[in-house]
UniProtKB/TrEMBL annotation:
<protein>
    <submittedName>
        <fullName>GyrI-like domain-containing protein</fullName>
    </submittedName>
</protein>
<feature type="domain" description="AraC effector-binding">
    <location>
        <begin position="10"/>
        <end position="157"/>
    </location>
</feature>
<dbReference type="InterPro" id="IPR029441">
    <property type="entry name" value="Cass2"/>
</dbReference>
<dbReference type="InterPro" id="IPR010499">
    <property type="entry name" value="AraC_E-bd"/>
</dbReference>
<dbReference type="InterPro" id="IPR011256">
    <property type="entry name" value="Reg_factor_effector_dom_sf"/>
</dbReference>
<dbReference type="Pfam" id="PF14526">
    <property type="entry name" value="Cass2"/>
</dbReference>
Length: 158
């Protein structure tokens, strides 16, 4: 029997990033409406990416989110050079320079990716930064394959 391999590496590291984004969002009950609500907003957004004029890469979908135990707001966005010419049914916003714990997984191993990054953060003394201009972010590298690379970024306290 052939061994099933995955493109997920589950490598963890600390990165510093800032983002300028244009996209759209959905707010839904959490956790019962997820992951369906997230998939819905991503599918709808991907039909409109050509409306965003100054994006860096149409094949990299960024999904920041805000969540508590009641509701979640989940975004589907493209990174842009400047927040300008925002289509009418979308929002443009900047996420300031932030330190993140990052894990590399895939669209088929996101649950394991979250388990790995929080385990790694705990082992290395990092804690998640809540609110204060921060969002956890899922970054999807869209290649049209059945399994695609996903990075999870969790903002950390310094």
């Amino acid at each position: 029997m052939m061994e099933v391999t995955s493109i997920a590496t589950f490598e963890c590291e600390i990165v510093s990033k800032e983002f300028k984004l244009i996209g759209q969002s959905i707010t839904a009950n959490y956790p019962q409406s997820f992951p369906n609500a997230a998939i819905e907003v991503q599918v709808e957004f991907l039909k409109k990416v050509d409306e965003i004029k100054n994006c860096k890469n149409k094949k990299v979908l960024l999904s920041p989110y805000m969540c508590n135990d009641i509701m979640a707001t989940y975004f589907a966005c493209l990174e842009v050079e400047e927040i300008a010419d925002v289509p009418e049914d979308m929002v443009g916003f900047a996420i300031p320079l932030m330190k993140y714990a990052k894990v590399s997984c895939s669209n088929k191993t996101i649950d394991k990716g979250y388990s790995k990054i929080f385990e790694w953060m705990g082992e290395n003394g990092y804690s998640q930064k809540w609110y204060d201009k921060s969002f956890p972010i899922e970054i999807y590298y869209l290649e049209g394959a059945e399994e695609e690379i996903v990075e999870i970024l969790i903002p950390i306290n310094e």
